[in-house]
Design goal:
The complex is a heterodimer of chains A (about 300) and B (about 70).
Chain A (H helix, E strand, L loop, with lengths): L1 H7 L5 E6 L16 H15 L4 E4 L5 H5 L7 E4 L5 E5 L4 H12 L36 E8 L8 E8 H6 L1 E10 L5 E4 L6 E5 L4 E4 L2 E3 L7 E2 L3 E9 L14 E11 L5 E14 L8 E3 L8
Parallel strand pairs in A: 1-2
Antiparallel strand pairs in A: 3-4, 5-6, 5-15, 6-7, 7-13, 8-12, 8-14, 9-11, 9-14, 10-13, 14-15
Chain B lengths: L1 H20 L5 H8 L10 E4 L4 E3 L8 E6 L3
Antiparallel strand pairs in B: 1-2
Classes of the chains: A alpha+beta (about 300), B alpha+beta (about 70).
């Protein structure tokens, strides 16, 4: 799209990327933000890593713009001056976009080509060791469920991703994945000289998670940035907790961990809580190649 | 009975996720996008890259190209 923007911005066409929830969390270590401020950090990171000159619009944390425009991860639209959507594609295509603009605004010759661009894209920065703690291998199809952070004075340096397996979805009895992932954009690492992360689970009546507490592994090196992952049993008794009450009956997961900032040098204990609802999260994205080098679920 | 209700609830809510698990945009999602053709751009309150509030209604007045994307 960069080449098209270079040619058509001078003709009065406006170009925007719309930043939305991650399509594939864990790719390059990035994980879903919890707050708008964190999503804006993602936008800055996208600008930095892509080196694009196109402006970004950031969707709100209810993902309303994504929902209003069809929910596809890389869709493309042309809006006419009256505000009507005159082109709508499920997947962005620069060649077709250029042809569209040629018909609407006129042909630009010579057209800018990718080789003309001098985009300074840069790789994601990591200052903490990774690949230290083996990633969890999961063979079952998993689906992300809703996770909400409870109020805290501290940012959520560690973000929980919760998923349930097919067996649970089919029968109400199966396994849940609890992944505690450090947010790389908050520049914090695990302090392995202190106690490992610990979590405790508090379930509503009708839901059982076992074990209801866990402790991360002891790691031999001082610091790392790998996720701490757990598989726990999960059972739901619909005769006690009707499906209609699942939204109002969160599981509370409390964590304790010791975090250190990569650059500022502080280290401190953190206690935070997440609410987990056993409802599918349509904005959680899908993890690719977890367990493979670089993160993500192996398929 | 209640269990099947849960299943229905979960499946209805997670249909797009099933598609995402395959790593591709589903036909359903494409259809949701193309269905918007010739409709007015919905008015949604979002923000610019610096966090300044912005309404999509402000995008009128010229030809505008919008492309969804993210870091991953």
């Amino acid at each position: 799209m960069e080449t098209v923007a270079i040619d058509y911005a001078p003709r009065g066409v406006k170009f925007y990327y719309i930043y939305k929830a991650l399509a594939h969390p864990e790719s390059n270590g990035y994980i879903q933000p919890f707050t708008l401020a964190e999503r804006l950090l993602h936008v800055q990171e996208a600008k930095r890593t892509l080196g694009s000159g196109i402006e970004w619009i950031c969707d709100n944390m209810n993902n309303e713009l994504k929902a209003a425009l069809g929910g596809a991860p890389n869709s493309e639209f042309i809006i006419n001056p009256a505000g009507k959507i005159i082109r709508a594609r499920g997947w962005s295509n620069a060649t077709i976009l250029r042809a569209d603009l040629e018909s609407l605004v006129g042909k630009v010759t010579p057209a800018t080509v990718v080789a003309d661009l001098k985009m300074k894209s840069t790789a994601p920065q990591r200052s903490t060791a990774t690949g230290v703690v083996p990633r969890m291998q999961i063979s079952s199809v998993m689906r992300a469920v809703q996770v909400k952070p409870l109020e805290s004075d501290e940012p959520y340096y560690v973000k929980l991703r919760a998923e349930v397996d097919e067996s649970f979805m089919d029968e109400g009895l199966g396994m849940a994945y609890l992944g505690f992932h450090l947010d790389p954009l908050l520049h914090v690492h695990w302090n392995n000289l202190a106690a490992p992360i610990q979590f405790r689970v508090q379930c509503p009546v009708g839901i059982t998670m076992g074990p209801s507490a866990g402790r991360g592994p002891e790691i031999k090196i001082e610091a790392d940035g790998d996720p701490r992952e757990f598989l726990v049993g999960l059972e739901w008794d619909a005769s006690i907790l009707p499906a209609t009450r699942l939204a109002d009956s969160p599981i509370i997961i409390e964590v304790d961990y010791f975090a250190c900032h990569d650059d500022l040098g502080w280290c401190k204990p953190i206690r935070q809580q997440y609410e987990v609802r056993l409802l599918a999260d349509r904005n959680a994205g899908s993890v690719r190649g977890r367990g493979a080098r670089g993160g993500g679920r192996r398929r | 009975m209640v269990l099947s209700l849960f299943w229905v609830l979960l499946v209805i809510d997670s249909t797009p996720l099933l598609a995402q698990l395959g790593g591709r945009t589903s036909g359903a999602q494409f259809s949701q996008v193309t269905r918007l053709l010739n409709t007015t751009l919905p008015t949604v309150n979002v923000c610019d890259a610096l966090g300044k509030p912005l309404s999509t209604a402000s995008l009128r007045g010229s030809y505008t190209v919008l492309v969804f994307g993210c870091l991953t």
